[in-house]
Amino acid sequence: MDFPEVVFGNQCSLQDAISFIEKLMLDDKEMAQRIASLSKGLNETYQDLEPYFAEYTESICKECDHPCCVNRHGFPDFEDLIVLAAMGHHIPSFDFSAQDISPCQFLGKEGCTLKRCYRSYRCTWYFCDEVFDRFEARDRAAYKRFESLMTSLCHKRQEIIRLFEKSWRKNLWE
Question: Which pick of 48, 65, 71, 92 has the fewest CB atoms within 10 Å?
Fold first, then answer.
């Protein structure tokens, strides 16, 4: 994708991207309706995935001395902003002075303080080796179901982004 870059720690960059996305969604009502329809399925898929995440990441991550979660991974990119807007979610308030490699500002004692559907996509699909290995080894049938749901999430997300990009490219030439 050739979407504009959202610069980590730059409030103006983030706000400009949000404004641009909101404007295009208002201007192209047909695209916005199609995206809204797709996003309902995306919200449902996040809900279906949550028990898998809770079982495996919460028990391991909250005990970890070296969490993978750092600020730069939690900061949304342009595609994340499209999907958040499609789902009707407002992005969380960021501390723009936070260092990019410091532990994520949303990482609490019990894990992430954000619902998964409000996080950057990197936060949804990334698993350290320990979490991934335990999950895969513990219950093969559950792992296959999880894998299927993650694939579904990815496809729905990609379709939302594709529809947005199609409208965006069309508006570039008008």
Answer: 65
Of 58, 123, 65, 63, nearest in space to 92 by CA: 123
Burial (0-12, 13-18, 19+ Cβ within 10 Å), 30: exposed
What is the number of domains present in the chain? 1
Query: Tens of pLDDT along 107-139?
Result: 888 778 898 899 999 988 887 888 878 777 777
Residue type, 125: W
The range of the structural domain enclosing residue 137 comes to 11-162
Q: Which two tokens stand for residue 174?
A: 């008008």
Q: Is the dihedral of CA 119, 125, 131, 135 positive or negative?
A: positive
- The neighbour count for residue 74, using CB atoms within 10 Å, is 24
| Position 171 in a domain | no
